[in-house]
Each structure stands twice: as C-alpha cells, then as structure tokens.
Prior knowledge:
The two termini are 38 Å apart. This protein folds into two domains: 2-126, no CATH class; 129-234, Receptor-associated Protein. The protein has helices at residues 2-29, 33-38, 44-47, 53-65, 69-92, 97-146, 151-161, 168-183, 186-197, 200-215, 219-274. By secondary structure, the chain is mainly alpha-helical.
Amino acid sequence: MIETFSYIILFISLAILIIFVSLYAYEHYKHSSLLSAIFAIQDDIIISDNFSAKKAEFKLKLQRAGLKRRQFNEIVFASVLAGAALISLVFIMDFSFLNEIFLVVLGIAIALFMPYLYVEEQIKARIKRIENDLPIFIDLLIIILEGGGGLNNAIDKVTIEGESVLGPDLLEESKKFKNEFITYSSNVAFTNLVNRTGSDAIATIVGFMRLSEETGIGVKSIFENQAQELKSMEMLNIEKKAATMNIGITFVMFIFILPAVIAMIAFPMAADALMPGF
C-alpha cells in the first residue's frame, strides 16, 4: 500500500514537472515557424456572427475569462504536449499494468480537460477582480456626477484617469460599455456588459440603471445605494472569514502542532518503559 502511494506521488510530481517543462519550452520556442502555423487562428473567427450556439457560448466564456482565441489555443497546445509526454512514460519506463493505466488516464485527462478548467478558473478570478474594483469605480463616478457631469463623461473620465486605482479588467469593460452605449441602444450596451462580465453585482447595477431609464430616477442615487450595498457585502465577507479563521487555526494546530506535542511527551515515556534499567 505504501509503495503504491509512493508511485502515485511520484507520478503526480512527474506530471507537474512535465507541465512546467512544456510551458518553459513553449515560451522559448513559440516564435518558431511551426508554432506560428499552429497558432495562426485569429480572433475574427470567433467574433464573426455566423457561428453556432456552442461557438457563441464558447466565445462568451473566453470573453468572461479575458482570453483571446489565440491564447486558448496556446493553452490547448501546452496541455496536449504535457499529456502526451506523461503517456510516453509508459513506453520509456517499466511500470506495472495498473500504474500504466493510471498514467494513460492522467495524461488524457490533462490533455482534454486542463484547458477548460483553466478557462473556468480565469472566469472566476476575473469576476472577483472586477467586483473588487467596482465600489471604487462607482465612488469615482458619484464624485463626477455630483460635480454636474453626465454619465458618459463620468465613465470616460474614470476610464482614462483611473488606471492607478483600478484594475485593467474593469477599465476594459468600461471602455467597451461606453462605446456601445454611444454607438448602439442602451439596452444592447447593458445586455452585452452583463454577458461579458458574468458578474452578479454588475447585473444588479445594470438592472437598476434600466429602471432609472424607465422611471426617471437619478443615476447618482442608484450608484450611491449600490456602492453602499457592495461595501456592506464586502464587510460581511470579511466578518465571515474572520469567524471561520478560528476553525482553520484549530485544524492547523490539530494536524501539525498537536502530534508534535504528543510526540514530545510520549517518546520519553516510551523510552523509559522500554529501558527501565537506564
């Protein structure tokens, strides 16, 4: 049992090593003619309106992750290379049949599922970055609106001069929203913003902005209420983390500290019991 567990740890370590080596090799040789041909697919292919529902959904996921089609192709290439390298160990090294099956399954899983898992993680990370910057973005909009500026002017001003306090994800979405808000109808701009970000907080703000257009309520009042709600939610999340911190500390003490304390007490007693004459 211990030997099998050691093999599993070894295989996982080799898989991680192969992935990092593959990424390192790609970063140094991606400008070669072969890789340039592999990554020749342009973003126009997924921006075109003539694609199926699955391609549209895939395009939306890439937008939410902040990735281009070319970047996704690079991730697929690295994953396939890592999976193939892991499977090749079956032919290079002498393993048992069970371990060979494990290597093949792990290599196939890395090649097939790693790119999509990476995209999902990037979506979550990007939504979190956008929602973390959202209260500051709204506060800046409120300041400009209080000075008498319009919504378009406020968004434009914050987008241009807010790079020092806001992340690039929210600023990029702000630029796209402003351009669509001017070029198309407000409904199109609102819908695209919600779809691109995938953020529940932005969806709530957009819902109130739609209501503002229909009822004539000032946008400034909506932003003030939403900014206060976001700050309250952030404070609530901090309080939740603080409340669960004691559980984490107790778990760490139980796993790492308590066995050491028991060993310090038990080992001397065991030594006295085994060697009473000394």
